[in-house]
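Give me structure tokens for this 149-residue protein.
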Amino acid sequence: MSLLDSLQKDMVSAMKAKDKARLATVRMLKAAVTNEQINVGHDLTPDEEVSVLSRELKQRKDSLEEFKAAGRDEAVQKLEEEIKVVEGYMPKKQLSADEVKTVVEETIEQVGATSKADFGKVMGAVMPKLKGKADGKLVNSTVMSLLNK
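Here you go.
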């Protein structure tokens, strides 16, 4: 079952259950996937679907941090609920910090990176491997720390 089919089915069940928060989030996700499909001009591959979900999750996590800093507790609670819904559609297993470190170390060896100047080259090579499997901030900080050694 494609992501769009799954979102449609969940949207109907959220309507029946009168779960407004879940319904709104699922609608936003469905709109994001549909818009991406229109932009690329074909049905999305599973990797492209994960990319859209990752982008939506990242936006919510970034907003969550800002709202927490501003003391907007009501918005924080709403965003935490949305994050749980989005995470439900993500690939189930996110890599641990140690697993990310291993992948980054292998990539650094493959591209022959030796200093911070090679950061962009390493990130360009490692992100396709970890897309949807690990948080971008974790990957970024891991690459930075390994290149600073």
